[in-house]
Each structure stands twice: as structure tokens, then as C-alpha cells.
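Before the break, one more example. Copy the sequence into your notebook; we will annotate it together after we see the structure.
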Amino acid sequence: MDIFKLTIKDIRAGLSNGDFKCVDLVKAYLENIKLKNESINALVRISDTALDEAREIDRRIADNEDIGVLGGVPIAIKDNILLEGKEATGGSQILEGHMSVYDATVVERLKKAGAIIIGQANMDEFAMGSSTETSHFGPTKNPWNESRVPGGSSGGSAAVVSAGFAPCALGSDTGGSVRQPASLCGVVGLKPTYGRVSRYGLMSMASSLDQIGTFTKTVEDAVILMQVIEGKDSKDGTSVELNDTTVPELIDSSVEGLVVGVPDEYFVEGMDEEIKKSVMDAVSKLEESGAKIEKISMPHVKYALAAYYIIMPCEASSNMGRFDGLRYGYHSEGSGLRDTYRRTKGEGFGEEVQRRIMLGTHALSAGYYDAYYRKALKVRTLIKKDFDDAYKKVDVIITPTSPSVAWELNEKFDDPVTMYLSDIYTITANLATVPALSVPCRPVDGMPVGLQIMAKPFDEYSLYRVGKFYQSITEWHQQTPA
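Here is what the structure looks like once it is written out:
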């Protein structure tokens, strides 16, 4: 038995059947972390209570007590999701040493379900990045090839699952920050519909786009994890009361009769031909299995990148205003209040965060608000309409997750525009507030490739159905780094 290939489902069964002890399971993960994390840098903090929690799970099993839906399952949490009594920095120097005084709602629910939080995952500073190279704690490396990036901004969480540090992790997705690193690291990444999961306790970057998502080895595990963290939260006014939830065992085992849309605008000239072939091969497999494939057009998605990189910096510049160094976090004394602000933010924030604050502040300033921000919101409405119109004809939409496989460290770091282009296929789901899932498909040049599936708002079930079926007829998700 290879412990590091176990899924959430496997761990639950193994503990229930007495195949292994929880304490031995957690010890194995901690040893693997000790062996590899210094090189990969996926975790910025490792739990010092995980073994005690594992012993308590073993005691409860021995006494025939209920251990919860995730009882004994190790999980990593992205560093922008708050853990009570733990340092919470969002990958930034400006919050170094800041201790959280409460748990995020998702963390509360994980703990109640018996999960063991094994560590906090590295990330791009305040989730601003696509490669996990902007972190104050240094870059995370891709477990498949440590000379390459893991994607971002949740690259640490993706690398945790890929490297075998835990069977699952949480991240946040503002424009693809769960799905893109999931694609580059060969794992399953789920961004739920905006409002399905509470954002209370998540450090806000762009509030109308942010959503907490999951990293797992299988789609079935994503469903199990989502069952625990989803649902209405009185502390988050944007969270929604759900009428039902998905039971993993009851997901339809076929795609017979399902209508799959393939939009022309996502398969443009200049994209990597091998990635296009990999994704279209997956589409062909679905067609052979009874799904109906329909070509569709979404004419406004070509403006998505431009609209996103106005809306997101505008919201980010507003949210970053709270980090003034006076109440908490990094502080640099200046000659007056204005100089103190300038010094604190200039020294505490990294270059990418400063760049986005400047972009957003400019776009929101007098004389530019209508020309940039208001116009971007109108484009967002048109993109949402493209999706609404598409879902009148199709059940799901399939695209690549990323336009390339993982690139070399530092390759795009000094070229922000090229870096931003790596989000080109994922940002539309955030702008349209629809759910999206990335699952591994055929690799290219020995590196993972992601297949992105999108569905109508709150129709995660269709994502699960297609993703689970695709994994049942392929083995790409079972491949792991050497």
C-alpha cells in the first residue's frame, strides 16, 4: 500500500476497517514533508498538534465513537485562510508575525468533521500571481519538475497534494488560482459557484471574484470535501442557502445524452497544439461514451482578460487599504502619517501587489472610473450573458485549463503581461460566477495538462458527473511525480 496515493475515500475506509492507525498515517505524511518540503517549499508552516489529533482519532475509533465525515484525514490550508491561534500572513511580509484570533468558517467545518490540518500552504502574496513566485517565503516548486512553477496563486496547495504531503488541500480562486495550479500539478481543482462556500475568514483580494476551492486526487474526493465546507453562513452575506447537496455514491455513472459545448474562442491560433489535442482527445472520449458534442460561440470572452485585469486590481486596491501597519502587521515609522503609510506599504508589500494597487487606484480615480472600471463591469455583464445563452443549448462547457504546461521558474516573472495571459482560460468562470472543475487529461512532454469543465451556476452536479466519468475511463489522474 502506497500511503501517499491514498484518497480521502481510501483513508476513511482504511481507518474504519482497521487497516492502519491514524497516528501512523499522519507520521508518514509528516516524514514525507520533512524529506521533501525544504526543496519544494509547498508548506510555510507545519502543524505541531497533528500527531496528538491523530491519537485522539484512534482513541475515538477504539471506543466506537463517531469520528466525523473527514475523521483522520490530513488537509493543508492556504495561508490566506485563517486558523485560530496560528500565524496568518497571506504570503506577505506585511503580515509576518500576525496571529489569527478566529477560525475561518471552512476551517470550523473541517475541524467539526474530524479533519487534521497538517499545515499552511505557500501562495503568491495576497493571491496576486499565477506561479507562486511572489510569496515572501520564496517560490514553490512543481513536484513533477522542481525547475518549474506549480502555477498560482494556490501553488502551494496544489503541490501539497501532488507531492503526497496530504490527500487534499484548500485554496482560493479569484481568476483561476485553484484550477490553473491543479492543471500544472496534475491534480483535481474545483472552484464552486460564487456563494456556495463561505468566504468568512478568507483574506479578501477581489471580493466579487474570490471563492474558496478544493484540491484532491479524484473528483469523488472533491465532492466529499465540498459536502463539508459548502452551505449558508450567517457571517458571510454572499453565501447562499443550498436546497440540496451531492452524494458521491449517487453521481450518474454515464454521460449518455449529456450535451457538451466546445467554444471556438477557447481554441485559438497560437495555443499549444499538443494541449489542444489532449483536450480534444478527452472530448472525443466523452462523445464515444454517448455525450453529444456541440460547437458553440461565446463572442465576448475575448475581452475577459482585459476586463478582469481592471475589475480585480480595483477591488484589490480597495481591500489592501486595511494594511496600514497601525493596527497589526508590519510597521515602518515615517516623519508623519503619510510618510508612515508610504514606508509601511512600500516595504511591506511586494512588487506585484504594489503594481496591482497602482493599477486599481488609477482605474478608480476621478476622470478614469467611467472609462475603465464602469466599462469593465459592462463587459463582465456581456460575458455572463454569453454563458447564460450557452447553457440554453448545452449542459457543460469544456475548454483547456491552462494554455501551457508548467513553465520554468523565473521564465515569466519579470514579464507581468505574459504571466497574466496564463489565466486566459480560467478567469471567465469567475467573471460569470459559474462553477468550474479541472481534471488531469493526457500529459504533454511528461508534464500534466488540465481539462476544464464549466457548468451553470449551482450545477456542480454536472461537473462532478462529467469529471468522475472521465476519471473512470482514464488513468491520467493516477499518475504521480517520479
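The domain at 3-253+437-478 is CATH 3.90.1300.10 (Amidase signature (AS) enzymes). The mean pLDDT is 96. Try to locate both features in your own notes.
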